Amino acid sequence: MKFRKLTIENYKSFQFATEILFPIGEDGRSIFLIGGMNGAGKTSIMEAVTYCLYGGKADDIFRNINRREKAKGNANVAFEIVIEMDDGSELIVKRSWTAGAVSEPKPRDLSERLVVVRDGKRVSVQNQEIWQDFIRAAIPPGITQFFFFDGEKIQEIAADDHSEVRLKSSLEAALGIQYINRLASDIVYIKQEERKGFVEISDEDLDFKQSELKREKSKQGRKHQERDALRVDLDGFKDQLDEARKRFEAAFHVAPESREAMREQEKRRVVAANRLAQVESEIRGLCEKALPFSIAGKLFEGIRRQIEAERESASGEAIKENAAALAKRIVRVVEEPEPIYTERLSAERLAELERRIFRLLKEGDPDADVTKVLDLSDRDAARVLNRMESLESSDVFLLKPLLEEAQNLEALLKQLEGAVGQGGALTGTERDLFEELQSVMESCSTQIGRKTEQLRLIEEDILALDKRISEIEVEIEKLYEKHNVSKEKADFIDECDAIASVLNQFVVRLRKNKVHLLQEKTFEMYRLLSSRSGLIKDITIDDKTYEIKITDRNGHEIRKSSMAAGEKEVFAISLLWGLAQTSELKLPIIIDTPLSRLDSTHRDNIVNNYFPNAGEQVIILSTDTEIDTNYYRALKPRLSGAASLEFDQRQELTTFRKGYFWESSHG
Questions:
Q1: 22 φ/ψ sector (left φ>0, alpha ψ -120 to 50, else beta)
Q2: How many domains are contained in the chain?
Q3: 147, 331, 355, 574: which could join 587 in a potential S-S bond, CB 3.0 to 4.6 Å?
């Protein structure tokens, strides 16, 4: 089994419908790397898979609806997984929650809907519970913890010094032992029911059985009448549905099955129109604040250079004006507090030195002369520079991308509005007809499903009554013959005991064999991942108590509590892999931030030995500090693809991009 595509819509930072494709390598195996910084949505991918497969509580779903969409009253959440089954068939599971037309939705307004498509054929909504059971059988929720896990799960197992209870429940879930135990209990119940027949038969029992036979035949007659009436109703709804389908095809020139695409096209148009209005509002706001000043933005650098030049020129003028005084001070520095020459200068030489310094200062730097264009004071110059800096850092420079987005949205709207009859926007009259026919077809489909289910149940009731009547007639015959219990029943009770005993022996042997396989697989991976693998001789698991023992080369037990944190986490990963291998289910492996708490040696072993052997499909969710440049280079030859989650903090929006972190910008 492999995941081929995951779609997330309006959940946490995934505001719009986001498709994540999982490529498969030429050898049928896949290691797919998704990078994302903390808060970018890696955990949301894990949650989306779980919610899509098994559903969730309305409170949890409502709490995680995208904040911006919830503020607009949009409480619709949808997940979709496309799965390639082991036999090559395709299974699509889509689960959504909607609050309908409620203006201010609450958790209690959410209604859950499951759609299952098998090999391109949509399964009836009425079979939702049956298909939910199918999903749970194909991907048992009790063992997905071995296949979908994160760093916190690893740390939780690593920190548990007494993991026997956890291990027992996990392994028995992986082996399906609970189903075997349930079967054994059912057999015991059947045996007890059969034993109730071991009683003496009296005349009163015979009269009671005759009355019971009469009552059951009366029920049988009423059920036949109900069945005939339901068949008439069912034929009527089928005729209505066929008529509505013909009207739909005549009005829109497309098959009724394409109405979902038409509704999706209309939804896209509404979303684009709302976004265009929002962008235009932002553009107007930016224009009202600082647009007039920012028009001169290209002149800012020249003005800044002129201010600096005039400041330097003013300093030179001040030196010229005070040349005489500065010359005297410089000469005094030469002599005081003591001469810097070996020979003291005469008064005439000092005077000559002073005159030369004076002329030099008076001449100044001819290249520093600047024509004063602005002639600002220091205070005014500082205010001008500060104002220019404020304008350069203001939001007005976001105007260009907003204008480009507005143009793109207008083009998209024209395209969608021009697609009438092709699955796009509809006129008011067409939309009313569309909704009317949609309502009729859905209502008829619902009624057909309901009536079909009622008819099926009545047929089952009739079969059950037929069987019960036959049983009562047999019982009456036996009562007339004064038999206490038939030989066959006694043999059946003995057979129940034998079956129950075989099942118990099977569970014991299955548990023993699988525990042995689990310890082998766990030790196999631990030797690949641990930095101390050479010091460990064996890992054993007791098949009765599930107690785990780790022994060194000298035969001494190594207590798990004495192991370093990294070794504990490596052991937890090895145990999860062992459980997944023991279950013998070929499910995808999804790992979220598995390296965050490990040192470099253990990280090397995880990247080189665990990821390539974790399963046929491995999906890794990592930050840039876990799978960094070096680890990415080591993994790249084995990857079937890489992608990244980009989070826009301003819009609180996550976007899925091909390429891992630094490669994403290059396509």
A1: beta
A2: 4
A3: 147
Two structure tokens written together for 527: 């030797």
Cα distance between the two ends of the chain:
29
Please tell me whether residues 163 and 182 are part of one structural domain: yes
Instruction: Report d(CA 252, CA 241) in Å as an integer.
Output: 16
pLDDT of residue 299: 64
Q: 176 or 587: whose pLDDT is higher?
A: 587
- pLDDT number for residue 59: 92
CATH number at residue 600: 3.40.50.300
**DSSP three-state, residue 2:** strand
Point out the domain boundary residue: 559, 584, 609.
584
Q: Are residues 472 and 493 in the same domain?
A: no
**121 shares a domain with 6:** yes
pTM: 0.52
- Out of 545, 562, 584, pick the residue that ends a domain: 584
At 367 the pLDDT is 58
Segment 598-651, tens digit of pLDDT: 777 777 878 888 888 888 889 999 988 888 898 899 889 989 999 999 999 888
- In the sheet that holds 18-21, the strands lie side by side as 18-21, 2-9, 77-84, 90-98, 111-118, 121-122
**pLDDT at 77 (0 to 100):** 95
Q: List CB contacts of 483: < 8 A, sequence separation 6 or more.
A: 201
How confident is the model at residue 421, as a pLDDT?
47
447-456 LR contacts (CB < 8 Å, sep 24+) = 447/233, 447/237, 448/234, 448/237, 448/238, 448/241, 449/124, 449/125, 449/126, 450/126, 451/230, 451/233, 451/234, 451/237, 452/126, 452/234, 453/126, 454/230, 455/227, 455/230, 455/231, 455/234
| Six-digit token string for 152 | 């916190």
pLDDT for 342-362, tens place per residue? 667 777 877 877 787 777 766
For residue 165, give the 3-state DSSP assignment. Answer: helix
DSSP assignment of 512-581 = HHHHHHHHHHHHHHHHHH-TTGGGEEEEEE-TTT--EEEEETTS-EE-GGGS-HHHHHHHHHHHHHHHHH
pLDDT (tens digit per residue) in 312-342: 776 666 676 676 777 777 777 777 776 666 6
Is there a domain that residue 254 lies in? Answer: no
Are residues 346 and 442 both part of a single domain? no
Q: What residues make up the domain containing 467?
A: 201-245+434-484
**Angstrom distances, CA of residue 33 to CA of 22, 617, 620, 640:** 10, 11, 5, 8
